[in-house]
Task: inverse folding
């Protein structure tokens, strides 16, 4: 069985990248803010989320441990 061992800051980083990506996509498809503000903020959040996906995936991959039963 494999387990995943992450510290609290590492978990926060991984979760934060997912949140930024989701919020950016949500802003791009919503109609609450003015279109220009929504697009600028939404695109930036999507870019941050997308750019930090690779380091987060590497962190998770390196944190996987094989456990014996």
Result:
């Amino acid at each position: 069985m494999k387990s995943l061992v992450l510290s609290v800051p590492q978990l926060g980083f991984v979760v934060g990248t997912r949140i930024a990506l989701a919020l950016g996509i949500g802003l791009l498809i919503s109609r609450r803010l003015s279109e220009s503000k929504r697009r600028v903020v939404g695109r930036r959040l999507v870019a941050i989320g997308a750019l930090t996906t690779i380091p987060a995936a590497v962190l998770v991959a390196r944190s996987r441990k094989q456990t014996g039963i």
